[in-house]
Write a structure and sequence with these properties.
The protein is an alpha/beta fold and 325 residues long. The longest helix is centred in the middle third of the chain and has 17 residues. The protein has two domains: 122 residues, NAD(P)-binding Rossmann-like Domain (Rossmann fold, 3-Layer(aba) Sandwich); 153 residues, Dihydrodipicolinate Reductase, domain 2 (2-Layer Sandwich), CATH 3.30.360.10. The radius of gyration is 20 Å and the shape is globular. It is built from nine helices and 14 strands. The strands form two sheets. An eight-stranded mixed beta sheet has the order 8-9-10-7-11-12-13-14, with helices on one face. Strands 3-2-1-4-5-6 form a six-stranded parallel beta sheet, with helices on both faces. Helix 7 crosses helix 9. 34% of the residues lie in helices and 31% in strands.
Length: 325
Amino acid sequence: MKPVNWGILGAANFARHHMGPAIHAATGARLAALATRSRQKATDFEAFCPDLRVHSSYEALLDDPEIEAVYVPLPNTLHVEWALKAMAAGKHVLVEKPIAMRAAEIDTLIAARDSSGCFATEAYMIVHHPQWQQARDWVQSGEIGRIEHVDVAFSYDNRADPGNIRNRPETGGGGIRDIGVYAYGSVRWATRSEPVWLRSRLRRENNVDTWAHVIGDFSGPGGGFTYAAMTSMRLHPRQDVVFQGEKGLIRLTAPFNAEQFADPQLQMYRKGQADVIQRFPGAQQYVLQVEAFGRHLREGAAYPWHLEDARGTQTMIDQVFAAEV
């Protein structure tokens, strides 16, 4: 398979430490260009990708005829603008989550995708990790019976970094947009269900949410279930997802930042049956995401997360803000 030539818009920390190295390491991908005005930041990328071509503006990278796909790790408020510009330039585009600030904005992206023929999607890496693919298979095949309840917790503490874009309202910050997107979207994806009723309690600092507790009811092909999620940017790090079924439960111990947070384990417990614990040594979800993107472009392979999926999660995010009590 001919490698896909990638460019990155902006030298964000996340791109430098995670997605840049992932593109460079992925089979079927070549990190070819970076757009940044910072010579020092470019040097950080060149340390692992010496042949990198550096452009001094985003527009120059989009004009680069060798670049086929663009990764956009810019602040949340700029995602839609630069995704549209990338597609207008004939580039396929992978945009950091959340891909938009409101669900209606994603309709514009869907229209641009369909009219341009470019592939555009959100960088929702967890659906590429084998732990989530197995969990989804177990949930949907009825291994633990009908789902009755789902619990999610995701927290970290960045109070010591007030300048971080996640702590700034003008860049679309807040815990819900940063990590709620995982607490909500992962459950939607695994169960193929949507919320039909929600209530939320939020705490804010500097006009961004730093803690959120969401309860609700979901409905889908397997029936309905209750839901509870806690996300916070002011608590000790925690990650946990539990699917509670009528005949057992499934737990993911490092569901979102696999390897970085902890060794990911997928656990299934059922009365009268042997416990099942799966581990996933070597599974790198960012690399897997890039490789799946390339196979979709080159071979038409199925891709597990589309703009319509992102729109569903953003709709839920919008509902969480609207359901505050």
